[in-house]
Predict the 3D structure of the following.
Amino acid sequence: MDTRTNNEEKSVQRSKSFSFKTQKEVCASCEKTVYPMERLVANNLVFHSACFCCKHCKAKLSLGSFAALQGEFYCKPHFQQLFKSKGNYDEGFGRKQHKELWSSKESDNITKSP
C-alpha cells in the first residue's frame, strides 16, 4: 500500500519555462502604472497615450507628430519655433554661407546636364 497522502498525489511540479515575470511599466510623465491598452513608447520611454503631450502647449502628441530634445517632447510647430537656429552662424566659424553652397551645387547640375 502507498503511504502518500492525497495532497502529495495532487501536487504538480510546474515548469519554469512557462512562468512569466510581469514587470509593471511606469509612465515617464505621471509615474503611474501603464497597462498595455494605453501604452505608448517614444525614445525608449513608456507613456500613457494621454500623458504624451507637448511640453510647451500641452497638446496630445502621436508617434508621427513629435520632436524631442534632451528628454523633453514637443509638437513639431513648437519645436521649430523654440529651437530653430536664427541668423547665419557659418560666417562666424570661417565657413562658406549656405547660399554660396547652393549656388555652386546648382551650377554643377547645370554643367552636368546633357
Observations:
- Residues 24-83 form a domain with the Cysteine Rich Protein fold (CATH 2.10.110.10).
- Residues 7 and 54 are 59 Å apart (CA to CA).
- The beta strands are 25-26, 33-34, 39-42, 45-48, 66-69, 72-75.
